[in-house]
Amino acid sequence: MADIDYTGRVAIVTGAGGGLGKTYAIELAKRGAKVVVNDFGGSRDGTGGGSTMADDVVKEIKDAGGEAVANYDGVHTHEGGANLVKQAIDAFGKVDIVINNAGILRDKSFTKMEENLWDPVIAVHLKGAYNVTQPAFVNMRENGYGRIVMTTSGTGLFGNFGQTNYGAAKLGMVGLQNSLKIEGEKYNIKCNTIAPVAGTRMTEDIMPPEVFEKLNPKYVTPVVLYLASETCQDTGKILCAGAGLVQAAGIFVNEGVFLGPDPSTPEAVAENWSKITDMTNLKQLSNVMDQTVDIMKHYS
Ligand code: NAI
């Protein structure tokens, strides 16, 4: 297997001032990428802001002989995303890689989930991925090359108490991926998603110290680096990574039950419930047309 190398590639890593994003930026630069280190520099709930976090990572990359520039835009605004991509193109001529990693938390149980907790979380994670990826995608399409990585979460995939805002935003990013993989197909733009589990400031108070210890971000970084590389020819995949384990997650349908050509009754659904929900025979559909074809096969 040839070494994975990013010489000549330009990467944007959002939220790269700390945690997971910092490791992605540093490792990409070590392997030759020119990196735009974006970080708004705020606290875990998205308040505050500043340039130090991004600057420190850029310094570390440059001290090690790599190339990087800092960007302090908040990805939660449309202007911020546009400016970030413009800066990458002005500094390095193009965008090859986007890693949508920036994130905040504003946890509360659902009955206390006010708009001021909901909106900023959706804005940073989901709208942020749109704000950055959309202008980058325009450039990637012109160049006939792109690697996009979304960041989802176990909360989005499986659920967690007190994180309805975060879970909705995080699974929304999978929805964004699912259509982007189709729009990018003709242009060699691949879009995949990471679901990391790592000990960072985001998780330091929700994990016991001995678990936190084992979940060093360095276990997630190689998976993201692979997804950001030319070697990765796959698209639309969800990878879970943490503490040395790498798994694929997916959305599947089962065989189902054909209740007949005439509209059925809720009683018929109840009678067939265990068969309808039997997940032993699963298949993955690659787009919405496949779903329609799968349904209509009962009429052919
Ligand atoms: P972190 O808090 O260390 O990193 C997030 C970074 O995003 C911070 O440096 C922060 O300043 C930056 N950021 C926040 N709002 C921003 C904005 N509007 N614009 C630009 N930058 C902004 O946390 P961590 O753990 O490294 O998280 C990275 C990503 O991984 C996040 O998307 C998070 O939701 C996701 N994730 C992390 C998990 C974990 O176990 N650590 C689990 C599942 C998902």
Walk me through the structure.
The chain is of the alpha/beta class and about 300 residues long. The protein has 2 domains: about 240 residues, Rossmann fold, CATH 3.40.50.720; about 50 residues, Helix Hairpins. It contains 11 helices and 10 strands. Helix 4 runs parallel beside helix 6. The longest helix has 29 residues. The chain starts with 9 loop residues before the first strand and ends with a helix. The model has no long low-confidence stretch (mean pLDDT about 95). Bound molecules: 1,4-dihydronicotinamide adenine dinucleotide. 1,4-dihydronicotinamide adenine dinucleotide binds next to helix 1 and helix 4. The site of 1,4-dihydronicotinamide adenine dinucleotide (NAI) has 33 residues, from helix 1 and helix 4.
- What is the CA-CA span between the terminal residues? 46 Å
Strand content: 15-25%
Overall CATH class of the largest domain: Alpha Beta
Could you state the order of secondary-structure elements as H and E? Answer: EHEHEHEHEHHEHHEEEHHEH
CATH architecture heading of the largest domain = 3-Layer(aba) Sandwich
Find the CATH superfamily of the largest domain: NAD(P)-binding Rossmann-like Domain
Counted by DSSP, the helix tally is: 11
Structural category: alpha/beta
| Radius of gyration from CA coordinates | 21 Å
> How many strand segments?
10
With strands numbered from the N-terminus, the spatial order across the biggest sheet is 3-2-1-4-5-6-7-8
Shape designation? globular
Helix content: 40-55%
**What fold name stands as the CATH topology of the largest domain?**
Rossmann fold
How many independent structural domains? 2
Bound ligands: 1,4-dihydronicotinamide adenine dinucleotide
Pick out the low-confidence regions: none
Mean pLDDT rating: 97
